[in-house]
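Inverse folding, one chain.
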């Protein structure tokens, strides 16, 4: 399975997640080292999250019991994507990972597709144009079980 197909699946899951803090999901990148392919997420506050095809050595790293401040969205995006993968089960396997040289761990995911390919993803973020608090927006959000039917989503 090509990287673009993995991104297609993740983009679909993010679009149908019905997460109330997500204002927009979009694709970006040129597919090279200077501009890797990825998915951008714009939150209601204007903050951004990015999920992009990564290179480098990734080591398994579980999510901590307490995530970083919500205004630093990267780890919260890792958790959202992990939760979506848990419900939708689009790949043979997945795990949260950390990358050498980064302070934030986990800061990505590694997925194994049903045809055996492995795709590494990094997650980064950019803050909102105005200062935000540390509280998680919509802490009661639960991935809707409709995500399980992601393959039959209209417009997919």
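Residues assigned per position:
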């Amino acid at each position: 399975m090509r990287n673009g197909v993995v991104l297609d699946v993740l983009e679909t899951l993010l679009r149908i997640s019905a997460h109330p803090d997500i204002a927009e999901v979009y694709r970006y990148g040129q597919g090279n080292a200077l501009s890797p392919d990825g998915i951008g997420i714009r939150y209601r506050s204007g903050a951004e999250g990015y999920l992009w095809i990564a290179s480098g050595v990734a080591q398994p790293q579980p999510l901590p019991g307490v995530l970083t401040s919500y205004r630093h969205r990267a780890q919260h995006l890792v958790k959202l994507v992990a939760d979506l993968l848990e419900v939708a089960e689009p790949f043979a396997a997945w795990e949260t990972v950390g990358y050498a040289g980064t302070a934030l761990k986990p800061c990505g995911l590694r997925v194994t597709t049903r045809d055996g390919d492995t795709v590494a993803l990094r997650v980064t973020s950019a803050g909102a144009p105005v200062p935000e608090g540390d509280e998680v927006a919509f802490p009661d959000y639960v991935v809707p079980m409709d995500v399980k039917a992601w393959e039959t989503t209209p417009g997919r």
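Residues 29 and 37 are 4 Å apart (CA to CA). The helical segments are 3-16, 74-88.
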